[in-house]
Amino acid sequence: MRLATPPVTKRPVLEGPILLVLAVATGAVVANLYFCQPILPRVASTFHHSVATLTFVVTATQIGYAAGLALLVPLGDLVSRKRLVPTVFLVAALGCLLCALARSLVLFLIASVVVGMASVAGQILIPFVADFAPPERRSRSVARLMSGLLVGILLARTFSGLLAQTFGWRSVYFASTLAMTGFAALLFWLIPREPRRESMRYRELLYAAAVLMVREPVLRRRSLLGALAFGGFAVLWSSLSWQLSRAPFSMNSLTIGLFGIIGLAGVVAANIVGRIADKSGGETITFRVTLIASAAILVSFLLFLLGSASILAIVVGVVLLDAGTQGVQLSNQTLIYGMLNQSRSRITSAYMFTYFLGGTLGSALAGIALERSGWHASSFVGLGFGCGALALSYSELRRHRHARELNCP
After folding, report:
1. Same domain, 110 and 245
2. Which regions of the chain are under pLDDT 50?
3. 384/367 Cα distance (integer angstroms)
4. Is 130 in contact with 344 (CB distance < 8 Å)?
5. What is the pLDDT of residues 245-288, one digit of tens each?
6. pTM for this structure?
7. Which of residues 172, 197, 222 is at a domain's end?
8. Does 294 share its domain with 165?
9. Cα(7)–Cα(247) distance, rounded to whole angstroms?
10. I need a surface site. Which of 9, 74, 118, 303 has the fewest CB within 10 A?
11. How far apart, in whole angstroms, are the C-alpha atoms of residue 409 and residue 406?
C-alpha cells in the first residue's frame, strides 16, 4: 500500500509567530532526552538500584533517539507532517506518562526508549521549515528552530532538577506529558497542509536515506564534521558536573544545573550565523563560518586544559564551545538543505544519525577518560574532536576554493 498526501494547490507560508511556536516545541520535545540526567539519584532510590545501574536509563533514551532518527524522521518525506508531527508528540506524551507511573525499573527503561524515539519530532520539523521557508530566509528560519533546540538541551537539566527538588522526580514527567499533549494539539492546528509529494514505499524510503549518504559527498563530509563538533560538545557536558563538584569549585547540583544557562550564548551565535548565511549571497561565507566555528571549539578545550582551576576560563570556554557547535551545525544545514528539495527529511535522518553517533562517542570517551585520569584527560579527548573538526573544515574551504577556480572562465 502506497501512502500519499492529498493534493494542495496553495504553498504554505511559515511566518514569524508560527516559527516561534515551532522553535519552542522543538526545544520542549528534545528536552525529554535530558530530563533524567540530574534526577538519576532520586530515581535510583525509588527503584532501589545504584546510580551506576541507572546510567542505563541514559543509554536507553539514546538508543530510542537513534532508532527514531533512522525510522521516523524519513517519514517526513512520505506522509503529511501535519499528521506526523502531532502524532509523534502524542507518542512522547505517552512515553513520559509511562515514566511518571512506572513502578519498576524495567518499565521505566522501556518508557525511556519510547521517550527517546519520540524526541526526534524536532528533527521532523527542521526540514519542514527548510522546505517552505523562502530561499533568502531559509538559514535564518532553520536557525530559529536550532535556537529552540539548543535552549531545550541547555535548560532541560535545570528545569528537571528544580522541579524534582520541589515536587519529586515523577513531577518532571507529568509536566512533560501535559506539555507534549498541548503541543500536539497546537501543532495540528498551526501546521499548514503540504502539496503532494512523491509516493514511495516505507522500505524504499529507508533505503533511499542510506543511499543518500553513499551518493552525496557533501552530505558525507558535513555529517562527519557535525559528528566531530557534537562529539566535542558531548565531552564537555558529560564531564563538567564532575569538575565543578570538586575543589576548588565544590558546587552543589542546583548550582551546576544553573551553570548550563551560560551556554545560551550559543543561541545568539546560531541566529547570527543564520543571518550572515542569508545575506552573503554565496557559499564562501558559509565555509568560512564553519572554519571559525571549528576553531572556537578547539580554543575552548585549550581553555579547559590550561584554566581548569579558573571559573572564568571555564565560563569563556563554555560560551566558545556552544557557539562553535551551533555555528558548525547551522552552516552544515545551510549547505545540505540546499541539495535536494524533495528529500530533506531523508537528508536530516542520515545527517542527524551520524551527528548523534558523534555525541554518543564523545560521551563514552569522556566517561572513560574521567574515570582513568580526570578532567585533563577528558579535555584532551575534546581537543581531539576539535582538531578533527578544524582540519576537516579547513579541507572543505580549500576544496570549495579549488572548485571555484576551476569554474572561473
Report:
1. no
2. 1-9, 409
3. 15
4. yes
5. 788 888 766 676 677 677 777 666 656 665 666 565 556 778 88
6. 0.79
7. 197
8. no
9. 63
10. 9
11. 8
The dihedral formed by the CA atoms of 49, 52, 54 and 56, expressed in degrees to the nearest 10: -140
Same domain, 86 and 158: yes
Whether 5 is covered by a domain: the verdict is: no
Buried b (16+ CB within 10 A) or exposed e, 109-128: bbbbbbbbbbbbbbbbbbbb
Count the neighbouring beta carbons within 10 Å of the beta carbon of residue 394: 15
Q: Are 300 and 235 in contact (CB under 8 A)?
A: no
Residues 6+ apart with CB under 8 A from 4: 196, 197, 199
Q: Are residues 218 and 191 in the same domain?
A: no
Asked whether residue 73 is assigned to any structural domain, the reply reads: yes
On whether residue 202 sits in a domain, the answer given is no
Q: Nine-digit cell at 295?
A: 576553531
Q: What is the CATH number of the domain that holds 150?
A: 1.20.1250.20
Rounded Cα–Cα distance for residues 266 and 226 (Å): 15
Query: Domain containing 45: what range?
Result: 10-197
Distance CA 43, CA 54 (A): 8
- 205 domain residue, yes or no: no
Residue 74: cis peptide before it, omega within 30 degrees of 0: no
Indicate the residue type of 327: G
Contact 281, 409 (CB under 8 A): no
233 shares its domain with 367: yes
> What is the rounded end-to-end Cα distance, in angstroms, of the chain?
51
Q: What's the angle, vertex CA 85, arms to CA 79 and CA 87, rounded to 5?
A: 95
Q: Are residues 181 and 79 in the same domain?
A: yes
Q: Is the separation of the CB atoms in 397 and 287 below 8 Å?
A: yes
Q: Is the dihedral of CA 130, 296, 232, 40 positive or negative?
A: negative
Closest CA to 399 of 287, 292, 290: 287
Assigned C-alpha cell, 198: 512523491
- Identity of the amino acid at 296: A
Q: CA distances (Å), 227 to each of 147, 234, 361, in order?
A: 19, 10, 9
**What is the identity of the amino acid at 63?**
I
Structural domains in the chain (count): 2
**Separation CA 358–CA 222 (nearest Å):** 12
In this structure, are residues 145 and 122 in contact, taking their beta carbons and an 8 Å threshold?
yes
CA–CA distances in Å: residue 203 to residues 249, 343, 345: 53, 15, 15
Q: Where is the domain boundary, 197, 228, 262?
A: 197
Around Cβ 309, how many Cβ atoms within 10 Å? 12
pLDDT for position 74: 86
